[in-house]
Amino acid sequence: VPLKPYSSSCVCPQLSSGSVRVGLLVNPRHNSGSQLLNQLVLAALDTLPPNQASHYISTILASDSLSQAISSREKDPQDVVVQGVDLSNLTLVWQQFKSDFTTLNTHQTYSRTVLNLSPGARAVVTNGRVLGPLDAGERFTTDDFSLLERFNMNNYGDKLLAVLKKQGDEDDVVTSDILMQTVALLVSRTQSRSRFEIPFRGEEYR
């Protein structure tokens, strides 16, 4: 029974890469002030294919001056030219996000009432488990996501997939949504652990 990606109705737009889907929840520190950059990111995730959205958003966030220019209305989405990214519909969707705060308010409410995050706090949510809030200046890098994926699959992902395949009919397809929801139900109990670094004793151990 193959495992295939399946697009679900989630409160957060999603990017996908390999066997991992990454979504975004916006949790601004203040309701006041410009939310143009947040709204542009949400519009890009809603409009562009995953790879294009990732490329476009990364280009903007990699430049503080460009991010600030968008937040201050000095630049519009079409001013950010990224090779291979079609921006024909992005500006229209961005205008809709700017005039309708429903999506942004939903993200804020979910972050604070369900995830128990204070305004502006950052965290990573994986299969129903909240990792965070992250400390100020703490980064959750691509390597961290790779390790997290490996940890999840080694601990329960592969095992649950095997069980679901065994219990289902030959024609049944185990979607990533089914696997995600099953894992979330089984591992959603609260855990509290701190991140720690492993010191290297010498070059020979690197």
UniProtKB/TrEMBL annotation:
Entry's Gene Ontology molecular function annotations: UDP-glucose:glycoprotein glucosyltransferase activity; unfolded protein binding
GO cellular component: endoplasmic reticulum
Domain UDP-glucose:glycoprotein glucosyltransferase thioredoxin-like: 16-185
Record-level GO BP terms: ERAD pathway; protein N-linked glycosylation via asparagine
Pfam short name (any one): Thioredoxin_15
PANTHER family: UDP-GLUCOSE GLYCOPROTEIN:GLUCOSYLTRANSFERASE, UDP-GLUCOSE:GLYCOPROTEIN GLUCOSYLTRANSFERASE
Name of the protein in question: UDP-glucose:glycoprotein glucosyltransferase thioredoxin-like domain-containing protein
